[in-house]
Specification:
alpha+beta, Archease, Possible Chaperone, Chain: A, domain 1, three-stranded antiparallel β-sheet, 2 helices, 21% helix, disordered N terminus
C-alpha cells in the first residue's frame, strides 16, 4: 500500500475495492485519526457544505482493542446519522485512552444537521462498518487506519 501525501496533517483517501467502499485515513494523533476516518466514512454520501451543523451529539465508546474502538466509534456515528436522519460533518475526540482493564475508551462529539431536501447525494451511503481489513497502525509520525464500509 502506498503512503499518503504526508504534506497534510490529517486526511483520507479512497482505495479501490471490488464491491464496497474502502479508505485509508491518516493523522498525527489517534484522536485526529478517528476524526479523519469519520470524515472519510461520510464523505461519499452528502455534500457537507450544504449542511448547517447546528446539532451536536455526544458519543462515548469502549472496546477491547484499538481496532475495535475505531469500529465502535464509526458504528455509533452511523447509527446516530440513521436514527436522527442527520448528515454528520464535523467530529471531535475529547478523550481517547487505554482503559484500566486493558481496553480502550473514547469520548467525542459529532456535529451536523438535517440534509436539505434539495441537496444531492454525492454517492452511496454507508450501511455498515465492517471488520474486513480493519487495521490501525503507526508508521513514522503518523497514525493510519484501513477501513472497508458496506454500501
Amino acid at each position: 500500500m502506498s503512503q499518503p501525501d504526508t504534506g497534510h496533517n490529517r486526511g483520507f483517501r479512497p482505495l479501490n475495492h471490488t464491491a464496497d467502499k474502502s479508505i485509508e485515513a491518516w493523522a498525527p494523533t489517534l484522536p485526529d485519526l478517528f476524526c479523519a476516518a469519520a470524515e472519510g466514512m461520510f464523505s461519499g454520501s452528502a455534500d457537507c457544505s450544504a449542511i448547517t451543523p447546528d446539532q451536536e451529539w455526544s458519543i462515548q465508546v469502549q472496546a477491547a482493542s484499538l481496532d475495535d474502538l475505531l469500529h465502535a466509534w464509526l458504528s455509533e456515528l452511523l447509527w446516530i446519522s440513521e436514527r436522527d436522519a442527520a448528515a454528520l460533518c464535523r467530529f471531535e475526540i475529547e478523550d481517547l485512552q487505554g482503559a484500566d482493564n486493558g481496553g480502550w475508551r473514547a469520548r467525542g462529539l459529532a456535529r451536523g444537521g438535517p440534509l436539505p431536501a434539495d441537496a444531492p447525494h454525492t454517492g452511496a451511503p454507508v450501511k455498515a462498518v465492517t471488520y474486513h481489513g480493519l487495521r490501525v497502525w503507526q508508521h513514522n509520525d503518523l497514525w493510519h487506519a484501513h477501513l472497508v464500509f458496506d454500501v
